[in-house]
Every structure is written in structure tokens, then in C-alpha cells.
Design a protein that fits this description.
This protein is of the alpha+beta class and 719 residues long. The protein has 5 domains: 2-27 and 238-408, Multidrug efflux transporter AcrB transmembrane fold (Up-down Bundle), CATH 1.20.1640.10; 46-114 and 229-236, Alpha-Beta Plaits, CATH 3.30.70; 119-223, 2-Layer Sandwich (Gyrase A, domain 2); 420-439 and 545-660 and 673-718, Up-down Bundle (Multidrug efflux transporter AcrB transmembrane fold), CATH 1.20.1640.10; 464-541, Alpha-Beta Plaits (2-Layer Sandwich). The chain has 21 helices and 17 strands. The protein has helices at residues 2-29, 46-49, 65-79, 106-113, 160-172, 209-221, 238-291, 298-327, 332-364, 368-400, 420-447, 459-462, 477-483, 485-492, 517-530, 543-572, 575-598, 605-635, 638-641, 643-675, 678-718, and strands at residues 51-58, 87-91, 95-101, 119-122, 128-131, 135-144, 150-158, 179-182, 185-188, 200-206, 228-236, 456-457, 464-470, 498-501, 507-512, 535-541, 602-603. The strands form 4 sheets. An 8-stranded antiparallel sheet has the order 2-3-1-11-16-13-15-14. Strands 5-4-8-9 form a 4-stranded antiparallel sheet, with helices on one face. A 3-stranded antiparallel sheet has the order 6-7-10. Strand 14 and strand 15 (507-512) form a beta hairpin. Helix 7 (238-291) packs across helix 20 (643-675), helix 8 packs parallel to helix 10 and helix 9 (332-364) packs antiparallel against helix 10.
């Protein structure tokens, strides 16, 4: 029987290796002529691929859906000229988003995209004879004359109705001029020499073929049915995106190696299994990003790296349980079964709460925040699968193949119960001091030179234009104020310009009032001609849309918190568990807020992504402790040992798990912080603070708060 089990397990191992090799091949090379599944084919967001994104608002009140659809269709035809991967889609009732990756002449594209595109044929008295809707087709033509001169034309063909109109127009205006007007500019003024009945005409006097081709394409597309107003636009260079991918991948690789070594040292053979499962997780994640057509953004990469750290979390819970079971005298086989069984509820509850945060981010967020939510959610689901299915299968396969010595699985040390409730009051006071520091710094920021505001609100929350310029030298803040600021003021006429230099780079970030496209184009030209700028990226957000973002951000945090409260209260059948968890979450958010306030970090959409991630992550450790309290309430004689002992014992029993899982996640984010591009450093920094704060609150505050609430309610009931 044992021999048969070994043979069967050996076969399973071979199948597992074959599956992993197959997954690896798909990720490396893909399949079919189009190489589907290949990691290189994962869609990159504009912050990684470079390009243009713009949000338009329809000026008309209550626009007809047919007109909106027609506008989107015609915008799609316009953007197809620039990129086959461009996307145009409706957002809400009156907004249209356009995303064009990989383009370079961004300002020109922005100038052309939202044009009404009105074409008309007008007589000498100003009467409109035909419009663009009468044109069937338009093509650029290059004519070579017999004397060697080249003429560039746009050849027009009219539809049936236009043919009749044009015949009448030429008949009525013989010997007179018919003006061809496009976007209120006369592009051609031919004299009618004969009645034209064939339904064809040409626009001449065009200087270059490119100009003729641009005009022909725009006429072909026709006028937009609705008038559009630019609300939000962003121009990103591809060079920075490539650097972000390179450094983030390197950070992820180093982090994975460090985490795997840590797991093997701490958990011995199960740690090795966790490392194998982590490899499977990464392959599945790469395929999932391809399969679900997820657009990978810079925050999305952060979400992946964070989810890799969290993927180890479930294994830590399981393997810590296995070590505890072995310490309590169980055989290895029994310990494995018990470890996976007892850890299951805690893993599910912890990950569901994080999924709640990801779901709220997805529903309420926009742009790159949605990308972060997507990658985080996919990562959480896959981490549960690899821990519960892959890790469990591998441990059982290797056990059947002879890896059965208890020494290989480790043995947990006897738990020394520490009185966490006793120190909790000191911890609460300490936390209040830190939180108050963050609140006090807000008016301090308002009075500080170079700050001047309560918080460093990004464009997401206050509107305006942000310019990230790269120069051929590294500027100090003082030099940037002297040399760069006057150039910006000359164009913007704004006295409240903010200048920031980016450490160890040649980049300078300038924030000013909302600039028009013409002003942005002028500023770019001046930066390149006067200051030798090598790259110029802009983000433009109107004040109305930034107000919506602020409102949505507050709603998102409230909704996520309420959903978590309800979930925990239902799962643990005790509202006090949910209430104490939410109080701890508010604590974690305020601790991170202190960092934003004191360090004057940028408060915008990524701030909300950070806060919701911390809400989802820090509650994991809390749920592990609550799960153990719930278990111990059923196994320990509370009437004899006392509720305080149950809580202290539960926190002490899960303390190693809390520290170990915080270390693995912290390492991943810390390496990203050290190696990542400037745009992601602030995000990584605040996540690190959140990880530390979440571990601290789970151990020192959450359990004790539940205890005080429980005892307080018992006292009330006994009166």
C-alpha cells in the first residue's frame, strides 16, 4: 500500500512539474501565431507605455445617447490614426475617456482630438451651401505637372444629396468664389469655372502632402455630433515608463528571493514548499493579467509586489499552525491536516476583507487606481488558491514520498503569554500622541514657506496643471525657483506656482493653475529652447472633476469601512469584534495620515489607494487574532482562567505569525521603495508605515479594545 502511495505521489509530482513547465512556457513564449499568454503582451498603462489620456465632458445638457455613441465612434476613427491600441469609452452620463498609448507628439494630438471638425462650403455672401455631412469621401492626392511642379490636393466625393447640392451651388455661383471652411478657417477658395455635376471636387493650395493627408482624414471622419470640453488630460513619456518597469521588476525579483530565503530559514521544508507555490503564483498571475486584459499601471505593479508579499501570508498562517500541532504532540501527518484545516477560516476571512477594499477601489477609483485594484484583487484570489490547493497538495505529495521527519517541519516553541492588555493603555496614549502630531502639523504646514496649505493636495484633489520636466542637469530647489519659475510665470501669469525637485534625478515638478492646451504647448517650447529640457510631461485636471474625486475618495473609505464592519460582525457573530476592528483600522489610517501631514506627501488618488490597501491588509492580522480568540473561547475554561488570559494567550499564540507575515510584506515594499522610480516611492513609503502600524495595532490595540468592550458590556448587563 505504501509503495502504491509513493508511486501515485511520484506521478502527481511529475504532473505538477509538467504543469509548471507548461505555464512557464506560456508566460515565456505564448501559444499560436499571436503568442497569446506571453508576458510581453500584457497591456501597459500610459504611465508605463507613455502616451496621452484625456477625459472630455459633453457641453450639452441631457445629451442623446445616439449622439454620444456617434461621438465615440468618430473619436475612435480619429485616434486610430495614432495607435491601433487606443481606447475610447464612455464614463458616466456625460464623460468620454480617450487613451492613446505609445504616441510622442502629444500636444498636437490633444489639439486635434476634440475639434468639432466642422466643414462647410460657403458663398461670397456667407451662405452655407454644403456641410461635411454631404461629403462621402476625402483623399490626399499628389499631382506632378508637366513642368515638374508638385501640387498637393484633397479630392472630395459627395454623397447623392451632396452631389445635387454641389451641382446647384456651382451653377448658382459661376465665376464666383466658393470658400471651403474648416473649423472656421478658410482652407481653400476656388473660383467656380463650370457647373460640376459629377459629385467630385478638390481643395488645392496645400503646402505638403502630410497637410493634405491630415485634412483629408479629418474631413473623412466628419464633425463630432457633440461639443466636448477637456476636463482632465495627461501626457507621459515612454522613457520613464520603461525605467519604471525595469526597476520594479528588479525590485520584485530581489524581494521574492529574500522572502523565499526567509521562509526556508524560518519554516524549513514547508518554507521550501511555499517558495515553489510562490513560483506557481507568479506564473498564474502573469497569465491572469493577459487573460483578463488587465492594463498594467505603475500602481498596478505596486499592487502585484504587495500581493506577492501577501501571498506568503496564507502559507505563514498554515505552517505556523503545523509547527504548533507538532509541538502539541501530533504526528506530522496529523499536524499537516490540522494545520490546513484550522488555518482555512482565518485565511478566507482575511482575504475577503482585503477583497472588499479592492472592490471599493475598483468601483470608486479611476485610471491607475483601478489598475491597482485589479492586480491586487487578482493577486489575492490566486494567493488563496496557491496556499490552499497548491501548497497543500505539494506538502502531502512530499510527505507520501518520504519527507516525514518532524525536524523538517519545525517545532514551535512554548508560548510565553505576555500581558498585552496591561500595556495597551500606554500604547493607546502613544498612538494618540502620534495621531495628534499629524493633526497639529496641518496648520503648521499652512504657515510654512514652500508649503502654504494644510495638506499637499495633488491635482486629483485641487485641479490645475502639473508639469514634470527632465533637464540636462540636476537642479537644486533654489536654482529651480530662480531659473524655471519665471518661465512658467511668464506663460501662466500665476503667482502661486509650486516647484519641487526630485532627489537624485534631473526632474523638476511644477504645479500651477489649469493651463489651456495652447499655454501648455507654449511652455513646452520655452522649456526646450530656453532651459534645454529633454522631456516634458503634463497632467491637467479641471477644478470640477477634482471636487468629484475628493468626494468619491471620502465615500470610498466610508463604504469600505462599513462593509468590513458588517462582514466581521456577521462572520464572528459578535458586533464587538467588528467595532474593535474598525477602531483599529481608523487608528492605522490616522497613523499613515500623520506621515502624509508631517512629510507633506502628495494627497490624491494614490493616497486613497494606500489608505484602502492598509485597511484591507492590516485587518488580516486582526482577523487571525480574533479567529484565535474565538477558538480559545471554546477550548479554554473562561470562567476559571478569565477573559483577560484568553485574550493575552490568543495574541501571544499568533504573535510570531503577525511578525513573520509583516516582515515578508514589508521586505517586498521596502525593496520597491529603495529601487523604484520617484513616482512610486511615496506610495511605497506610506505602505511600509501602514504595514508596521497595522501589525502594531493588531497586537497592542485591537484585542485589548475588544476585551474592554466585552467587559464593559458585561458590567452593564450585571447591574
Amino acid at each position: 500500500m505504501k509503495k502504491n502511495e509513493k508511486l501515485k505521489s511520484g506521478l502527481y509530482l511529475v504532473i505538477f512539474i509538467a504543469i509548471v513547465c507548461g505555464l512557464g512556457y506560456l508566460v515565456a513564449f505564448g501559444f499560436g501565431k499571436q503568442h497569446k499568454g506571453k508576458a510581453e503582451h500584457i497591456q501597459l498603462g500610459l504611465d508605463l507605455a507613455g502616451g496621452v489620456s484625456v477625459t472630455y465632458e459633453i457641453n450639452e445638457n441631457n445629451p442623446d445617447q445616439k449622439d454620444i455613441n456617434d461621438t465615440i465612434l468618430r473619436l475612435k476613427k480619429r485616434v486610430d490614426r495614432y495607435s491601433t491600441e487606443a481606447d475610447v469609452y464612455q464614463e458616466g452620463a456625460k464623460r468620454i475617456n480617450v487613451e492613446i498609448p505609445g504616441v510622442t507628439d502629444a500636444n498636437k494630438i490633444l489639439a486635434e482630438l476634440g475639434k468639432p471638425g466642422g466643414l462647410s462650403f460657403v458663398d461670397e455672401e456667407g451662405n452655407v451651401l454644403l456641410t461635411g455631412s454631404d461629403v462621402k469621401n476625402a483623399d490626399a492626392v499628389k499631382n506632378e505637372s508637366s513642368v515638374g511642379e508638385t501640387e498637393y490636393l484633397v479630392q472630395l466625393k459627395f454623397n447623392d444629396e451632396g452631389k445635387e447640392k454641389f451641382a446647384k451651388a456651382t451653377k448658382d455661383n459661376l465665376g464666383k468664389v466658393i470658400y471651403v471652411v474648416y473649423d472656421n478657417q478658410v482652407v481653400s477658395a476656388p473660383t467656380v469655372e463650370a457647373e460640376i455635376t459629377e459629385g467630385e471636387a478638390v481643395i488645392n493650395n496645400i503646402k505638403t502632402f502630410e497637410e493634405a493627408d491630415d485634412l483629408a482624414t479629418t474631413i473623412r471622419i466628419g464633425a463630432l455630433p457633440l461639443e466636448l470640453k477637456e476636463m482632465n488630460s495627461k501626457v507621459v513619456g515612454a522613457k520613464l515608463g520603461q525605467e519604471a518597469i525595469k526597476t520594479s521588476l528588479m525590485a520584485g525579483l530581489i524581494g521574492i528571493i529574500v522572502v523565499c530565503l526567509f521562509m526556508i530559514v524560518i519554516y524549513l521544508f514547508p518554507g521550501f514548499v511555499a517558495s515553489l507555490a510562490l513560483g506557481v503564483y507568479i506564473l498564474l498571475l502573469a497569465l491572469a493579467l493577459n487573460g483578463f486584459n488587465v492594463t498594467l499601471t505603475l500602481p498596478g505593479i505596486a499592487g502585484i509586489i504587495l500581493s506577492i508579499g501577501m501571498a506568503v501570508d496564507a502559507n505563514v498562517i498554515i505552517f505556523t499552525r503545523i509547527k504548533e500541532e507538532i509541538r502539541n504532540g501530533s504526528t506530522v501527518k496529523t499536524a499537516i491536516d490540522a494545520g490546513f484545516h484550522k488555518a482555512l477560516s482565518a485565511i478566507v476571512d482575511g482575504n475577503v476583507t482585503t477583497l472588499i477594499a479592492a472592490a471599493v477601489l475598483w468601483i470608486m477609483g479611476t485610471g491607475s487606481v483601478k489598475g491597482f485594484a485589479q492586480t491586487l484583487a487578482i493577486g489575492i484570489i490566486l494567493s488563496m488558491f496557491t496556499a490552499i490547493v497548491v501548497s497543500k497538495s505539494l506538502v502531502k505529495i512530499f510527505y507520501a514520498l518520504g519527507v516525514q521527519s518532524p525536524k523538517l517541519y519545525g517545532k514551535a516553541k512554548e508560548v510565553k503569554v505576555f500581558n498585552f492588555i496591561k500595556i495597551s493603555k500606554v500604547c493607546i496614549v502613544l498612538s494618540l500622541v502620534v495621531i495628534i502630531l499629524g493633526l497639529v502639523f496641518m496648520p503648521v504646514n499652512s504657515g510654512m514657506k514652500g508649503r502654504g496649505k494644510l495638506l499637499n493636495f495633488s491635482l486629483d484633489f485641487q485641479g490645475g496643471t502639473s508639469i514634470t520636466a527632465t533637464f540636462d542637469k540636476e537642479y537644486t530647489l533654489e536654482d529651480a525657483e530662480k531659473e524655471i519659475k519665471p518661465v512658467v510665470q511668464e506663460v501662466s501669469k500665476d503667482k502661486n506656482i509650486e516647484i519641487q525637485t526630485v532627489d537624485d534625478t534631473k526632474q523638476v515638478v511644477i504645479k500651477t493653475r489649469e493651463l489651456t492646451l495652447e499655454e501648455r504647448t507654449t511652455l513646452e517650447e520655452k522649456f526646450k529652447s530656453q532651459l534645454s529640457a529633454t522631456a516634458f510631461e503634463t497632467e491637467n485636471i479641471s477644478s470640477s472633476i477634482s471636487g468629484e474625486m475628493r468626494r468619491d475618495a471620502i465615500i470610498a473609505v466610508i463604504i469600505a469601512t462599513i462593509c468590513m464592519l458588517i462582514y466581521i460582525a456577521v462572520r464572528f457573530k459578535d458586533f464587538k469584534f467588528g467595532a474593535s476592528a474598525v477602531l483599529a483600522l481608523i487608528h492605522d489610517v490616522l497613523i499613515v495620515f500623520m506621515v502624509y501631514s508631517v512629510a507633506y506627501l502628495s494627497v490624491g488618488n494614490t493616497f486613497i489607494a494606500c489608505m484602502l490597501t492598509i485597511l484591507g491588509y492590516s485587518i488580516n492580522a486582526t482577523i487571525i487574532i480574533f479567529d484565535r480568540i474565538r477558538e480559545n473561547l471554546g477550548t479554554m475554561r473562561v470562567s476559571k482562567v478569565g477573559l483577560e488570559t484568553v485574550v493575552n494567550t490568543s495574541i501571544s499564540q499568533t504573535f510570531t505569525r503577525t511578525i513573520n507575515t509583516s516582515i515578508t510584506t514589508f521586505v517586498m515594499i521596502a525593496i520597491l521603495f529603495i529601487m523604484g522610480v520617484p513616482a512610486i516611492k511615496e506610495f511605497a513609503l506610506t505602505l511600509m508605515v501602514g504595514i508596521v502600524g497595522g501589525a502594531y495595532s493588531s497586537v497592542c490595540i485591537t484585542g485589548p479594545i475588544w476585551f474592554f468592550m466585552k467587559k464593559g458590556l458585561e458590567k452593564k448587563t450585571s447591574k
